[in-house]
């Protein structure tokens, strides 16, 4: 059986991950790991590769200012951003991080922030129930 676009390096990394639930992603293996994960549908590994690339771009291309501006925009416009359709796909740890900046959240009331948090948690629980079946 031939696995097109899957190298030994990529396959080895995925097998290691399947056994140990740990993976090392570096500049040297990123392309191989990404191609193997994409071909074999290791969605979590694709997410790891994406995060690695995003972090590398932030460091290499000096996008820290962009990251700060984005965070500031979200905090300054929290209610409208939180009401957008895409907001439910924000990772839970990032959502909690935004809530930890409660003193900087621009909202009419704490009740608005509470309702958003409640809605986020309800969506999260609903998804967990859906995928646990």
Structural class: mainly alpha
Summarize the main sheet. none
Q: Approximately what portion of the residues adopt beta-strand conformation? A: under 5%
Shape: globular
Overall mean confidence score, pLDDT = 85
Number of strands: 0
Characterization of this structure:
The chain is mainly α and 133 residues long. The chain folds into two domains: 1-62, no CATH class; 64-133, no CATH class. It is built from seven helices and no strands. The radius of gyration is 19 Å and the shape is globular.
What layout of secondary structure does this protein have?
Layout: H1 8-20, H2 30-40, H3 43-60, H4 64-76, H5 78-82, H6 92-100, H7 110-132
Can you summarize this structure?
The protein has 133 residues and is mainly α.
List its salient traits.
133 residues, mainly alpha, 2 domains, globular
